[in-house]
Automatic annotation (TrEMBL):
GO terms for molecular function: helicase activity. Residues 214-376 form the Helicase C-terminal domain. The lineage of its organism: Bacteria, Bacillati, Bacillota, Bacilli, Bacillales. This is DEAD/DEAH box helicase. It comes from Paenibacillus chondroitinus. InterPro entries: DEAD/DEAH_box_helicase_dom, DEAD/DEAH_RhlB, DEAD_box_RNA_helicases, Helicase_ATP-bd, Helicase_C-like, P-loop_NTPase, RNA-helicase_DEAD-box_CS, RNA_helicase_DEAD_Q_motif.
Length: 535
């Protein structure tokens, strides 16, 4: 791999990269940085956690002219949390050059954002809806924008952001540099690329499987009613440093987070019905380790980079292979290993096989963890906690009493009693979750069709890309079309764009939070010919 010195970057950027601990470039960075520095439009695809943010961030910052007082670059992201995170990475990379960047997302006080915009940031990182709000209020002007980046471009399409993106890009000069990035590039991205990119270079560093290689993937077949018990046992057995548990709906996430808390786990939920403050708080606690289990809808599936996430558990099977790839990609990042477990009910097995086929990776079947394994796991954890205290803390204040107790009691019994106390046992609490419907695959729709030109080694030929010619097909019209979402159960937050002066297209996508199951069908309805059915 190339070192960053070899790209001919400005010293200020090299210094930032060194401070961030990057020693050499990752494969996607090695390929895209030189092209992007030349100003080539590109579609960049590389596995989750392989540094795509810096792959666009570094050349972007290199190109920014510090004399520029107007917005010269725009980065669009599908979720607020991702916009915040990308902004932080850009801030770190641009620190020594003195780059001014600003995240702009829904749910945050717009007046505060307007004030921050007065400081003349050169780079804006935002979610499409709130960006449009500012454009309509004329608090953001794009006529000097030279570079546009769409992070998780495919997801923004799926979320129904096409109209918003089109409206935004119409205001950016045509003479611009545009780049798309994602770990997954379904064929529908071609349309977006054709419309917005000029003669793009397809840069793909996806070897043979789409999911990141350092993730150990397993599934457990079980019944809906067994899921919670299995989850507690898994958490006890595996003792994750940090874990993300994905649930299908907001209701599921709420119930699951509460149930885990009752059982004594430091868990909190994240979904789109929470206020932005609550969302920020949960993310902060997860990042600083004050909670170690994050229960989330797919709002957390894309792009989030939290170091220390050793486990991802799909409590509910994801709707589609892309979602699976991104969800499990929250672990096994930046060269670290990770473990992903997926719960599958018997009726969902076909769907799991479909995911395996599309991602070209066999997911190994594991038995339900036994109670004995869970207990053993918990006990081991207690022993580790004790040893940790032994090594890191002075225990003087307990020593006097310890000596006294040891004079009266057997040392092994004493330690065992202390361990029992530390381990705790909340297993007796009876937890009942509202069942979720199984996801089922409609087999005939998985027919293999030749995908024409594959985008950068996507899911590969023969994988039967179900979306081709499907919901994004020609029938959906052009600029004012409603790009149908491929599923109805995903959640990005009904209030994801704040609700202040939202564009009509965004508003139409909103869906109340009080629909059955508290499911967010906020964006366009599923087309009946979609391949994945949530019955
Ligand atoms: N060259 C590098 N050396 C070491 N670490 C790096 C390097 N480049 C990026 N990283 C770190 O790797 C982690 C993952 O990077 P990033 O979030 O950009 O991945 P990604 O490819 O965008 O993943 P996703 O598809 O999930 O969005 C981050 O913590 C980032 O700081
Ligand atoms: Mg990313």
């Amino acid at each position: 791999m190339k070192t960053f010195q070899e790209f001919g970057l400005e010293p200020a950027i090299l210094r930032a990269v060194t401070e961030m601990g990057f020693e050499e470039s990752t494969p996607i960075q090695e390929k895209t940085i030189p092209l992007a520095m030349e100003g080539r439009d590109l579609i960049g695809q590389a596995q989750t956690g392989t540094g795509k943010t810096a792959a666009f961030g570094i050349p972007l910052i290199h190109k920014i002219n510090m004399k520029e007082e107007r917005i010269s670059a725009l980065i669009m992201c599908p979720t607020r949390e991702l916009a915040i995170q990308v902004a932080e990475e850009i801030e770190k990379l641009g620190r020594f050059k003195g780059i001014r960047s600003l995240p702009i997302y829904g749910g945050q006080d717009i007046v505060k954002q307007i004030r921050a915009l007065k400081k003349k940031p050169q780079i804006i990182i935002g979610t499409p809806g709130r960006l449009l709000d500012h454009i309509n209020r004329k608090t953001i002007k794009l006529d000097d924008v030279q570079t546009v980046i769409l992070d998780e471009a495919d997801e923004m399409l799926d979320m129904g952001f096409m109209d918003d993106i089109q409206s935004i890009l119409k205001l950016v000069p045509e003479e611009r540099h545009t780049m798309l990035f994602s770990a997954t590039m379904p064929t529908n991205i071609q349309r977006l690329a054709q419309q917005f990119l000029r003669n793009p270079e397809h840069v793909s560093v996806i070897p043979k499987q789409v999911s990141a290689p350092l993730i150990d993937q397993a599934y457990i077949e079980l019944h809906e009613k067994q899921k919670f018990e299995a989850l507690s046992r898994l958490l006890d057995m595996e003792a994750p440093e940090l874990a993300i548990i994905f649930g299908r709906t907001k209701r599921r996430v709420d119930e699951l987070a509460e149930a885990l808390q009752k059982r004594g786990y430091a868990a909190e939920g994240l979904h789109g019905d929470l206020s932005q403050n609550q969302r920020d708080n949960v993310m902060r606690k997860f990042r600083d380790g004050s909670i170690d289990v994050l229960v989330a809808t797919d709002v957390a599936a894309r792009g989030l980079d939290v170091s220390g996430v050793t486990h991802v558990i799909n409590f509910d099977l994801p709707q589609d292979p892309e979602s699976y790839v991104h969800r499990i990609g929250r672990t096994g990042r930046a060269g670290k290993e990770g473990t992903a477990w997926t719960f599958v009910t018997p009726r969902e097995i076909d769907h799991l096989h479909f995911i395996e086929k599309v991602t070209r990776h066999k997911i190994s079947k594991k038995p339900l963890p036994s109670l004995a394994e869970a207990i053993e796991g918990k006990q081991k954890m207690t022993a580790e906690r004790i040893l940790d205290v032994l090594q890191n803390d002075a225990q003087f204040e307990f020593k006097g009493l310890a000596i006294q107790m040891l004079e009266q009691y057997d040392s092994v019994n004493l330690l065992a009693a202390a361990m029992k106390l530390l381990t705790g046992d909340k297993k007796e609490l009876n937890i009942e979750l509202t069942p979720e419907d199984p996801i089922r695959a409609r087999k005939k729709k998985f027919d293999v069709r030749s995908s024409g030109r594959r985008v950068g080694g996507g899911y590969g030929s023969g994988s039967g890309d179900r979306r081709q010619g499907g919901g994004y097909g020609s029938g959906s019209g052009s600029s004012n079309s409603r790009y149908p979402r491929k599923d109805g159960g995903r959640d990005y937050g009904s209030n994801r764009e704040g609700g202040e002066g939202r564009s009509s297209s965004s508003r139409n996508r909103e869906y109340g939070s009080n629909n059955p199951g508290n499911r967010d069908r906020s964006r366009a309805p599923r087309k009946s010919e979609d391949t994945l059915v949530n019955k």
